Automatic annotation (TrEMBL):
Recorded GO MF terms: hydrolase activity; RNA binding; RNA endonuclease activity
CDD domains given in the database record: HDc (cd00077), KH-I_RNaseY (cd22431)
GO BP terms: mRNA catabolic process
Protein name: Ribonuclease Y
Keywords, in A-Z order: Coiled coil, Endonuclease, Hydrolase, Nuclease, RNA-binding
EC class name: hydrolase
Database matches in InterPro entries: HD/PDEase_dom, HD_domain, HDIG_dom, KH_dom, KH_dom_type_1, KH_dom_type_1_sf, Ribonuclease_Y, RNase_Y_N
HAMAP family per record: RNase_Y (MF_00335)
Cited PANTHER family: RIBONUCLEASE Y
All copies of domain HD, residue ranges: 336-428
Organism of this sequence: Candidatus Uhrbacteria bacterium RIFCSPLOWO2_02_FULL_48_18
Length: 519
């Protein structure tokens, strides 16, 4: 048993030794194979590297050859282009040289012609001198024969003709004067009557009051407001007087300025429609009424231009609005815009008959009273103001002159005389003007102008038919104490400078208003 175990151990030891030897031999063989493969890979890599280097060198040579070919080609193209330019320059130089030769030749020809003309001029002058000498010789011979000088012969001849024909000439002149005056009178009457009959316009005299219709009499109380605060706010901000009487469903706006009355009427209409009548809403409505009125002024001006066939695009929009203001301006009770349209139309008709410039007469007639639209705010008479306004907006002198011509005794152009005649026709028609209204408006304007001449005055409104003047002052310029003295000074100046019936109440209003917004 022991021997078996020993033999088994010996066998196992021999097997282990044999296995170890085999594994060592196997490992050596694998190492040799790996080394051989490595050498083979390195050899192949070196060969591949050399092959790549060869290919790179080949491509580099190809690229160099291609680059050289391209550069040679570009050089050849540049040389060809240079040659082409040189040929073109040579051709241009040849053309210029040819032109210079032609110019030189023409200059020589011109000099030759000039020389010939000078020679001819000299010959003509010599001939003129010879003719004058011959005339002098002939006159001297005639004077020797007649024994009279030229002046004496002319004087004697004229006297003889005058004696022989004096009676006939005087009779003829008288007859011509009579015929001329009669024909001119007939033609002028015919021309004016034709122009008047061709243009028929309605006659309406503007008043100083505007009626506002109410839905019911209860609305009168709402317009008056608590302790009269609403009606006072409207009157203060519009410069008009609101008359609330027993007339059913009606109140009256009184004021000499049609624009102020129109602002008040539109504001009242909006307030009545809205139903909210209180001071803050009144101020908003008056601002909205002023904006809508400004749009209407522009539209009135455009309509006037359309009626006379004047392109609206040819007139500055600001001037169109100024023209529209005349819709709310009166002259002796006659609507100023309607009067201007009539003058432009009549002047254009008369210009057609007389052969004058129709466009100047139409445009000059329409704008001849444009100064009246702003004469409340500017110093000077309306003809000069109108002239300056038209000059400012680029009108030509012959049109600007129409503003002055219609007040001149003898206009210096026929168009000025036509516009003056058309202005007289439009204003002289029965019922067209009303003297009393114009005098009233003039008195109101003088009252406002006098009160507004003091320093620190912001706005002035003459109300209650001139029995009261309300003056708004700048609170930062005039204190409460100084406002008392200002009222006295204004009252004294009105007493010394103006004529008026009864008495005038002077009211100074000083208000400080602070506005801030919470955002």
């Amino acid at each position: 048993m022991f021997i078996s175990i020993l033999l088994l151990l010996i066998g196992l030891g021999g097997g282990a030794a044999a296995g170890y030897a085999y594994r060592k031999a196997q490992a050596a063989r694998l190492a040799d194979d790996a080394e051989n493969r490595a050498e083979k890979i390195i050899t192949e890599a070196k060969a591949k590297h050399q092959e790549l280097l060869n290919e790179a060198k080949t491509k580099q040579q190809e690229y160099l050859i291609e680059a050289k070919e391209k550069s040679i080609k570009m050089i050849e193209e540049a040389k060809q282009e240079e040659q082409t330019r040189r040929r073109e320059l040579q051709e241009q130089q040849k053309r210029l040289e040819k032109r210079e030769e032609l110019f030189d030749q023409k200059l020589i020809e011109i000099e030759d012609k000039k020389t010939k003309l000078e020679d001819q001029k000299k010959q003509i002058e010599d001939v003129k001198v010879s003719i004058e000498l011959i005339k002098l010789e002939q006159n001297e011979k005639l004077q020797e024969i007649a024994k009279l000088t030229k002046e004496q012969a002319e004087e004697r001849l004229l006297k003889q003709i005058e004696v022989d024909s004096q009676e006939a000439l005087q009779s003829r002149l008288r007859k011509m004067d009579e015929i001329t005056e009669e024909e001119v009178e007939i033609k002028s009457r015919k021309l004016l009557s034709l122009a008047i009959t061709r243009f028929a316009s309605s006659v309406s005299v503007d008043g100083t009051t505007t009626a506002v219709e109410l839905p019911n009499d209860e609305m009168k109380g709402r317009i008056i407001g608590k302790e009269g605060r609403n009606i006072k706010a409207i009157e203060l901000q519009t410069g008009t007087e609101i008359i609330v009487d027993d007339t059913p469903n009606m109140i009256t706006i009184s004021g000499f300025s049609p624009i102020r009355r129109q602002v008040a009427k539109r504001a009242l209409d909006a307030l009545i429609k809205d139903g909210r009548i209180q001071p803050a809403r009144i101020e908003e409505s008056i601002m909205e009424a002023k904006k809508s009125l400004a749009q209407e002024l522009k539209k009135n001006g455009e309509d006037a231009l359309y009626q006379l066939g004047i392109p609206v695009s040819s007139i500055d929009p600001k001037l169109v609005s100024i023209l529209g203001r005349m819709r709310f301006r009166t002259s002796y009770g006659q609507n100023a815009l309607q009067h201007s349209i009539e003058v432009g139309t009549l002047a254009g008709m008369m210009a057609e008959e007389l052969g004058a410039d129709v466009f100047i007469c139409k445009k000059g007639g329409l704008f001849h009273d444009i100064g009246k639209a702003v004469d409340h705010d500017m110093q000077g008479a309306h003809p000069e103001i109108g002239y300056n306004i038209m000059k400012k907006f680029g009108f030509p002198e012959e049109i600007c002159y129409q503003s002055i011509a219609h007040h001149e005794d003898r206009p210096r152009t026929i168009e000025g005389a036509i516009v003056k005649a058309a202005d007289a026709i439009s204003g002289a028609r029965p019922g067209a003007r009303k003297q009393s209204l114009e005098n009233f408006i003039q008195r109101m304007e003088e009252l406002e102008r006098t009160a507004g001449s003091f320093e620190g005055v912001e706005k002035v409104y003459a109300i209650q038919a001139g029995r009261e003047v309300r003056i708004f002052i700048h609170p930062e310029k005039i204190s409460d104490l100084a406002s008392y003295q200002l009222a006295k000074d204004i009252a004294n100046k009105i007493e010394s400078e103006l004529s008026y019936p009864g008495e005038i109440k002077v009211t100074i209003i000083r208000e400080t208003r602070v506005i801030e917004y919470a955002r």
